[in-house]
Write the structure tokens for this entry.
Amino acid sequence: MRQTLFAAIVLAAVSFPTWGHAGTDGTIGVVRNFAGSATITRGDNVLPATAGTRLHVGDTLGTGPDGSLGVILRDNSSLSLGPSSSLVLRDFVFSPDEGKLGMWVRLSKGTMAYLSGLIGKLAPEKARFDTPLATIGIRGTHFVVKAGDPVSQ
């Protein structure tokens, strides 16, 4: 187990060598790709999504009706948003050398695909995904979810 953890930490460090130890600038991930209308809202600022844009806790990722957005988080997790989606990066902790791992994402509308990184593999109980109607706990390595307006009855 200890060798597996060490190998996972080395793999993560090699994957993102420019991020240093713990993202001292607050960076938790980067935009990998985008198409159409895609934005990052940070506080009162709305930024156009571009490849390489650094992401921080509290950022809201959004796509328009023609948009899509792919991001990679520090633990090598991958999130992909489809058209007309909105997702908040509520919390993210990745300090494996200190035993601190966790992520909390809230998808308020649209579609999202997730492929787990080290947090989902080493501490799946620490990965949490909220939608308007449910919370998803990670027990595997990937899933796709759609959140939208509830159907009236």
Observations:
- The helical segments are 2-15, 118-122.
- The longest strand covers residues 100-115.
- The CA atoms of residues 133 and 147 lie 8 Å apart.
- The two ends are 50 Å apart (CA to CA).
